[in-house]
Amino acid sequence: MRRSYENALKLLETRRRKVRPKTPATPSTTQESVTPSGVPTVKGISSLVGMKEWLQALGHSESDVDKLNIIHIAGTKGKGSTCAFTRSFLRTHALRTGFPARIGLYTSPDLQCIRERIQINDKPITEDLFTQYFFEVWEALIPLGSGGCAEASRQPRYLQFLALLAFHTFIRENVDAAIFETHHGGEFDATNVIRRPIATAITSLGLDHVAQLGPTVEDIAWHKAGIFKPGAPAFTVTQEAGPSEVLRKRAAEKNTGLTFVSSSNILPTNSRVLSVPVQRLNCSLALELATKFLQLKGHALDADDISRGIDNFSWIGRFEIIEQGNSQWFLDGAHNELSLEQAAQWFAKNVHAAHVPQHRLLIFSHFSEERDGVALLESLARALVKHDAKPDHVIFTTYQEREDGYTRIDKTLKVPETPFPDLCTIYSSLWKKMHPDTAISTEPTIQGAIKLAEQISNQKGGIQAFFTGSLHLVGGALSLLRR
């Protein structure tokens, strides 16, 4: 096969599982430990199994991974923002001092293209670099199916492959620091092959991925805290009493100190980036991580680093506002109940601050095998009413971006088992039952939803349109709004 970017993406898609396994993992494949509720959660073979052997097959030792100087971040909400704030603080310090000169960032999922997941110095790696390193990993690992140890004889799945590609890229590109976001959990996550991080962190916790992580927030805390490592300072934001106790216990078990972080009083009060309370908390956590990282490397953040780090912060699709004439587009890729509550509060705060009330639109789409879209929509509706930001018009749409059916080759998108028209009908009926006075529309594409919103804006003299429910929806909207 020709080594091309398009072929790399086609091969990567073959590593997706058609369905998630339903059978609980055996103790031998999970190094079984007991979560607080005692409910077995890992299904099939855990994502961590094989990672060490695959890295070795690529020629990378544990020492090579250690030299990446990794900050490892887990949590339910705010992982991406915390990673981005941490990167921004380190980057501004580097521009002043020269260290760390090259900063790697691994996050998921992507909004607009797959290369967003693997970045160096604020930019996704190029198509050429992605292609080169993809085929180096692919050609080294696929032959392992013919023999070797039991763990290495398997081939990596989609997220495992992407994590391996990130490690390989950062090692080959000689980054001085790397920030890794976990995929879902922590203890059995593919990224937890990291044995000696510089520091670890847990962002805000809530119920999400319960089929994989357990039915209680204490179970989720147990899994997330699996990234704690002996001697690596651990940080977390203020949590509820139950998960806080679990995190303390796990830190003690793993022989590390745990620091609870609240909103820092040294952050500026007039920054638009920090106008959302949860973003102040994420920024405060990132500030602790960057400060500790640099301290351990013989450096120190100064006030200018902090100020410029906040000014230069960028994380697309999170609490983002685009203004076009009389139309204001509010975008946040919230897709669980905790994040939807925060996004609704943010939208309400901004619409209330407007001098002239405008017609409010909600544009919503959600599909997931792991989450109940109906429950999420109900939660969002309650939050918008609670914060006095109930929309005048709701548009339900799909993940399909354009009316001509075109999809970018490097846009990752799962095809739902339930047809989108059926989901839109379900969501429409639900909203009509809750709020019969709201105008409701359905559109088969994101482009169609935007066109309808623009028509309403022309009729009403302006709109405040809120995109939420899915990163796929927000990513598509951003691609169309930023023509």
TrEMBL record:
Catalytic activity: (6S)-5,6,7,8-tetrahydrofolyl-(gamma-L-Glu)(n) + L-glutamate + ATP = (6S)-5,6,7,8-tetrahydrofolyl-(gamma-L-Glu)(n+1) + ADP + phosphate + H(+)
Free-text cofactor note: A monovalent cation.
Aminoacyl-tRNA synthetase in keyword set: no
Enzyme Commission numbers on file: 6.3.2.17
UniProtKB keywords: ATP-binding, Cytoplasm, Ligase, Magnesium, Membrane, Metal-binding, Mitochondrion, Mitochondrion inner membrane, Nucleotide-binding, One-carbon metabolism
Enzyme class, first EC level, given as a word: ligase
Function: Catalyzes conversion of folates to polyglutamate derivatives allowing concentration of folate compounds in the cell and the intracellular retention of these cofactors, which are important substrates for most of the folate-dependent enzymes that are involved in one-carbon transfer reactions involved in purine, pyrimidine and amino acid synthesis.
Family statement drawn from the similarity comment of this UniProt entry: Belongs to the folylpolyglutamate synthase family.
Protein name: Folylpolyglutamate synthase
